[in-house]
Specification:
- The protein is of the alpha/beta class and 173 residues long.
- The chain has five helices and eight strands.
- The strands form three sheets. A four-stranded mixed beta sheet has the order 2-1-4-3. It has a two-stranded antiparallel sheet with strand order 5-6.
- Strand 3 and strand 4 form a beta hairpin.
- It is elongated, with a radius of gyration of 20 Å.
Amino acid sequence: MTRALVLNASYEPLCVVSARRALILVLNDRAEQLTSTGRVYRSVSASFDEPSVVRLTNFVRVPYGRRVALSRRAIFARDGHRCQYCGDAAENIDHVVPRSRGGAHAWENVVAACRACNTKKRDRMLNETSMRLRTIPRSPRVQAWAMAAAGSVRHDWMPFLGDASLPEAQQSA
């Protein structure tokens, strides 16, 4: 399913919705289409470009301090779907400081890991193994919610998201 980025009237990113929902917003004059995917929706008497980015016509107040929720999908997005110990494709998540040893379930303590590394590390601390982290886990920037919601970020979204903390490999055309 194709997704579309929804911007506030002030061009602040709000959410990611289906392209069909974005088109409905445009047709109901609740939003204006800024970019399209190049695909077309057709009816008996008209055709419409499939929206990729839309901007709401009225400003929507957003609660202050929005954070990216900690989820498996968001962790994989932050780490580029790569094991943070060996660099292979990740399929599990790992707590750097194991929960059994008092580690928190927080952005700074959770990384993507391949099955082999996750099994090898078990419930040990990093200093008890020969393993090392490739990058230090951090909480993602606010724009990373778009990645978590859509699975990937389209290139035509980047001017509207600004400096998102997303690996280049996760951006799609």
